[in-house]
Design goal:
single chain; about 140 residues; mainly alpha; 4 helices; elongated
Length: about 140
Amino acid sequence: MEILAGGVVLALLVLGLGMLVRRLLRRLAVLLRGLLTVPARPTGYQLRGLRLAHSRALVRSEQRRAEALAAEVMRLRVELRMAKQAPAEPRFQRAKREFARRFHPDRLPPRSPDRSIRIAIFREYWAVLRGIERSR
């Protein structure tokens, strides 16, 4: 019995050693292949002109987009300054707040039969109120 167990251990040891040697030989082969091959010339050199033209076109389009965004930021800054200077009319603010308190759809029970109608009406009138508020 001890001889059989010793033989099994010896066989497993030889198997593990063989697997380790195989793994080392594969890595060595990959390393040697990498050292012996001559690197090919990248295809980027052949397409340099095309890529450069594409890059320039992309830069121009992004520049136009950035200019448009900068103009939008400037416009919004002016609007913000004007809104801060013009105090909101307290009666309009009170009316808007009262409208939201009484008619906002979130104040209804979830299964209310007229919920969808109230949502549509509230959205429509709320957009009108916001337009009035912005036009001041």
